[in-house]
Design brief:
The chain is built from ten helices and three strands, in the order αααααααααβββα. The protein has 207 residues and is mostly helical. The chain has a domain of 46 residues. A hairpin with a 6-residue loop joins strand 1 and strand 2. Helix 7 packs across helix 10.
Length: 207
């Protein structure tokens, strides 16, 4: 790997940035390498001639729109390479638990929220397209009920959008202390309190 020469003042500036990022996103029991600092600066850099309105490499605003993700968590996700909602949705929840302050349950919730956000966006896009097509058909007097190419979300988004329905054979209402129960891969059953708990288990064991 080629070496990069920097001046003494540049090295001091980088060290200052590294210390600030480490304090904000890693904590006293972790460390942030200089290479992580350089990667963060590259990820958050916006070229001067970037087109107006072009999204920066790290979509912090999009990440903070997810349930359970504040600004600090969004910044930590971006530093770790999860720069967009799509990056988070396609990740394994276990990879998020490597970040400071994100436990297993929160990681599953964040990935589920990202997946549902993408599904919602796709559903809205399809609904808008259908509405435009229906309006055009009514105006031309040639309304048709035939399906159009591209009207349906991809199968992966359908599963995300209807997560509970897609796995309705693995959970049910229960008569015990908890209102629901979920079948696990080892053949056992776990009782849970909410449908969010059901989603969490589905993501953990069946995704």
């Amino acid at each position: 790997m080629p070496d990069l020469s920097v001046s003494e003042s540049q090295l001091e500036a980088l060290e200052s940035i590294r210390a600030e990022l480490e304090s904000a996103y890693v904590g006293e029991y972790g460390t942030m390498r200089m290479t992580d600092t350089v990667q963060y600066l590259l990820d958050t850099y916006t070229p001067p001639d970037a087109a107006e309105g072009q999204r920066s490499p790290a979509d912090i605003e999009g990440l903070t729109a997810l349930d359970g993700v504040g600004e600090a968590t969004a910044e930590a996700l971006a530093i770790a390479g999860f720069r967009t909602v799509e990056d988070v949705a396609s990740s394994n929840p276990r990879s998020l638990t490597e970040l400071k302050g994100i436990g297993e349950e929160q990681a599953v919730d964040i990935v589920a929220a990202a997946t549902e956000a993408i599904a919602t966006t796709e559903t809205e896009r399809v609904a808008e397209k259908e509405m435009k097509n229906e309006t055009a058909d009514e105006a031309s007097g040639s309304k048709t009920t035939e399906p159009r190419d591209g009207d349906s979300p991809e199968s992966t988004l359908q599963q995300a959008m209807n997560l509970l329905d897609a796995h309705d054979d693995r959970w049910r209402e229960a008569d015990g202390d908890e209102p629901y129960e979920v079948d696990l891969p080892d053949g056992s059953t776990e009782a849970v309190r909410t449908k969010d708990d059901i989603k969490r288990l589905i993501f953990k064991h069946w995704r």
